[in-house]
User: What shape does this take?
Amino acid sequence: MVKHTDNIESEIDDFVKGQDIYNKIRDYAIDNFGEQMDRYPDFLVYYLQELYKLPAQQFVQVINGILTNLPNRRLLQNIATDVFHDLRADDMDDALDN
Assistant: This one.
């Protein structure tokens, strides 16, 4: 299968679609976690890292949910909450170190 799909035409298609997918994930985060993003400019980067850590099948389901406007809101909120708490803990650690 790779021999038939791993070509320059597929790479261009993946690049274009990948940007659209990223934009939808980013827009979802902005719409739902804007306060966290305002407080922590790197929030989206860490949020995406946590999404990428999901098991492959769950990752695909979560991304498909965002793309079809049927997101797993509970899971996405839990990830956002964990990221927010980690960033806030880092702030507290930095404050104590100074």
